[in-house]
Fold this protein.
Amino acid sequence: MTDRLVLYPGSFDPVTLGHLDILARACRLFDRVCVLVAASGKPGMWPVARRVELIERSLGDLRCEVDSFEGLLVDEVRRRGAVAVVRGLRSAGDYEHEWSLHGVNRRMLDGFETLWLPARPEFAAVSSTLVRDVARHRGPLADLVPPPVVAAFEAEWSA
Amino acid sequence: MTDRLVLYPGSFDPVTLGHLDILARACRLFDRVCVLVAASGKPGMWPVARRVELIERSLGDLRCEVDSFEGLLVDEVRRRGAVAVVRGLRSAGDYEHEWSLHGVNRRMLDGFETLWLPARPEFAAVSSTLVRDVARHRGPLADLVPPPVVAAFEAEWSA
Amino acid sequence: MTDRLVLYPGSFDPVTLGHLDILARACRLFDRVCVLVAASGKPGMWPVARRVELIERSLGDLRCEVDSFEGLLVDEVRRRGAVAVVRGLRSAGDYEHEWSLHGVNRRMLDGFETLWLPARPEFAAVSSTLVRDVARHRGPLADLVPPPVVAAFEAEWSA
Amino acid sequence: MTDRLVLYPGSFDPVTLGHLDILARACRLFDRVCVLVAASGKPGMWPVARRVELIERSLGDLRCEVDSFEGLLVDEVRRRGAVAVVRGLRSAGDYEHEWSLHGVNRRMLDGFETLWLPARPEFAAVSSTLVRDVARHRGPLADLVPPPVVAAFEAEWSA
Amino acid sequence: MTDRLVLYPGSFDPVTLGHLDILARACRLFDRVCVLVAASGKPGMWPVARRVELIERSLGDLRCEVDSFEGLLVDEVRRRGAVAVVRGLRSAGDYEHEWSLHGVNRRMLDGFETLWLPARPEFAAVSSTLVRDVARHRGPLADLVPPPVVAAFEAEWSA
Amino acid sequence: MTDRLVLYPGSFDPVTLGHLDILARACRLFDRVCVLVAASGKPGMWPVARRVELIERSLGDLRCEVDSFEGLLVDEVRRRGAVAVVRGLRSAGDYEHEWSLHGVNRRMLDGFETLWLPARPEFAAVSSTLVRDVARHRGPLADLVPPPVVAAFEAEWSA
C-alpha cells in the first residue's frame, strides 16, 4: 500500500465553490491531491501565480498541494508519478468535453487515467466563466466563490 | 387574476423567424411579453438600438414591448416584476446551455423562473450566427429572417 | 385577458415532491392548472383513482384541479380548451423524450403547445420509478414524496 | 493513511471484458475493491450465485472481493464502510443514467460518493445486454466476455 | 465501378412515413437498397411476413428489395455482400443507441460500415412505437404512416 | 447507374488520421469523393493551399479529388452536382453540431443530403484543434496525423 497521488488540473480563473467541493471530496479519496493551474492556453482574467495564491488562501482545512504547469498534462502526470487525474462533471456537455480530453491524453500516454466526480447539484451551474460574468456586472458572488476570491474582486472594484 | 409579465431576453443580432415564432407563442400564453435585447457581452454585428428597431418593425400583429438592458438579467426580472423568462429550445445543446443559465440565475434570485418552449422543427437549425454566416456569403435569407432584416442586409450590401 | 388553463399530465405513480414543485410553479404562472393522471399505458403500482386521491391530499395550499384521462393527450387539450401542457425537465434524457412527445402531439394537433420548466436541482434525480424502487427496499421516502404518499406506503407495509 | 474500500456494483449478467477493464483500473487506484452483484431487480439470464462465480473465475491476477447484495446500495456502502462506488461510463446515455442514480443515492445517504471511469473505446459498445443478444444468435463472444463466460455459454448450447 | 448494395434493417412494426423517407433517400444514393425486417427480438404487433408485405405495398415508385432476416445483422451483411447499413437518426438519443449498435457490429465484423441519414424534421418524432400508441387510441394516422398501413389498422378496427 | 459524387468538406487545419479514415471509407462507398477545404471562416494555422497540399500528400492509395472552396457549401453541392456531403461523427456533441449544419443547408437547398459516418473509436478524440494543441507543446504527433503533417510541423519547429 503506497501513497497515491492524483492531480486536479484546471484553469481556476478564479477558483469556485464548485472546484473546492470537488477538491475536498478528492482529498477524502486519495492520500495526496495536487491542484494544478494550467499556465498555457489563452491569458486569463488573473495571472497564474495569482490564481494559485487564491486557491491556497481558500483551502481552509484541506491538505493538498497547489502548483501550476505549462505544456502537456500527460507530461505532468508522468513527471509527478500521479495515478490519475480528477475532474468534476456538471452536465452532459462537460461529459462530452472531458471524454474527448481523456481520449486525447490516453492516446499520448498509455495507462493515463481520469476519474470523474459528479458536481453537487447546487454547484452544477457554477463555472469560472459565470463568475467573471457576474463580477463584471457587480452581481452577488458569495454563493459562487470562496471569501478570498470575493475579496479579490472587491479590491479590484475599489482600485 | 393579475396581468403577468414574461421577459424574452436574447442578443437578437439579428432577430430570426425562429425568435418571432417563440415570441408569437409566448404572446398567446401570457398577458404581457417584453423582448429584451442584451446590451452587454461582446459587440454584435449591429448596435443594440438597431436590433431593437428591427424587432419592432418585424412584429406585425404581435402586441409586445421591445427594450434593451445592460447588466444582470435577474436585476431586470426584479425591476420589471416579471413572473418568468421565456426561451426557445432548439436542441439538446441548447438545453444544456439554458439549464446552466437558469441554474446561475436561480442562485442569484430565489424564485427565478424559466419557461422553455420547443422550437418548431423548421426553425430548429436557425440561429443569428447562421444568419450572419449566410449573409456574409450573400446566401438566401428570406426563409431565415423577417422582411425588415432582409432589407437591412440588402441595404448594407448596396451601400 | 381571459383565464388560461394549462394541463400537467403524467403517470404520477406516485406523485413526488418533484411533481409538486413543478405544479406549484405552474400555479404561479397560470390562472388555472389541471393535473391529469394518464389512465392508459401499462398498469401502474397504484390504480388511477388512488393516484388522483394521493395528489389531492398532497396539494396543501395549491389551488388546482386534479383529474384523470384515457386516450390521447391532444384530445384532452382540445376538449378542455387548454392553452398549453406543462412538463418538468430533469435531464438531457428528459429533454430528448419530451421533445419527441411534443413533436408527436403537434403533428396531431396544430398549435399544440408544451411548456418545459427546469426541475429544481434537489429534485432532478427524483422520479416515480425511483420512489417505487426505494419503497420496495423499505428505504427512506420522506425526502422523495409528500406525507400522504409516505403514509400510503407505510399502510401497505403494515397490511 | 487507512485502507480505502470502493464498491463496484452492477448486474454482471454476465460480466464482460468492459467490466473487467474497469475493475482492473479500480484495483490500481484503491487499496480494496469489492465487486457487488445486485440480487434485486428483475431476474437475469443467470442466477446471482452463478454470476458471482463467473466473475471470480475471470479475475486472473486481480485481487478483489466479489459478493452479492440485496436491497439498497446505500445500505451496502454504509455497512461495508466504503468511501465510494465506482462505475464505468461508456456514453452520454450512461452519463445521464448514472447521474440520476448518483443523485438518488446522495439523497438517501449524505456523503455518498460516485467515481466514474471512462470506458476504453474498444469496450464502449460492450454491454451484458449485447452479449446476451449475440449469444442468442450463437455469434462470436471471445471479444466481448472472458473465457469462463464463453465456456459457460458453450456449455449451455451443448446441453 | 460495381453495383453497391446497402441494407436498411429495422423492426418496421409498422413501417412509417419516416422510414419511407430514409429509404427514398438511400435509393438515390446507392445502386441497390434492401429493406430488412428483423425477425428476432420480441414479437411485434404484426407478424414479420405482414410487415414485409406492408412495406412492399408502400413502396410506390421506389425500386428496392424487401426481405426479412433472423440472427445477427453482421451475418446478413456478409452473406449479401453489402457495403454498408443505412439508418436514420432522429435525435441525440437515436445517435447514442446507433453508435452502440455500430460499435457492437464492428467488433463482430471488421469493416462493418454504418451510414446515418438525418431524419427530416417533420418525421423526427415519428416512430413505430408512437404509431402503435396513436392507433390504440384510434388517433389520426395519415400523417404518420403510408396509406396501406392506415388501411391495415382500419381493417383491424372493423374486424 | 451513373457515377455519384460526394463531397467531404471541412477545415482540415491540419488533416488528421481521423479525417483520412473517414475519407478512405467514403471512397469505398462512392464512385467519386472530393475533399473540400473551406477557405472562409477565420484564418487557420495554415493557409488553405497548404492544407490542400498536405491532404494530397497524405492520400497514399486513395483515389479522390482535393480542392478548396469559398462561400456557401450548398452552392458547391449544386455547382459540382454532388449527391451528398459526408461527415464523420465522433460524439454526441458532433451530432448536435452536424444536425444544425444539415438543417441550415437543407433550408437553403431542397434535397441537400448529409451522410454521417461513425468515427472509429481510436480516432474519436482526435481533432485538428487537439493536434494544434499537442503541436504547440511539441507533444507526440505520430498517432494523430499522417507523416506529411508530422514533417510539416517538424519543419516549422526547426525553422
About this structure: The two ends of chain B are 51 Å apart (CA to CA). The interface with chain E takes residues 91-92, 121-122, 124 of chain B (CB under 8 Å). The longest strand of chain B covers residues 32-38.
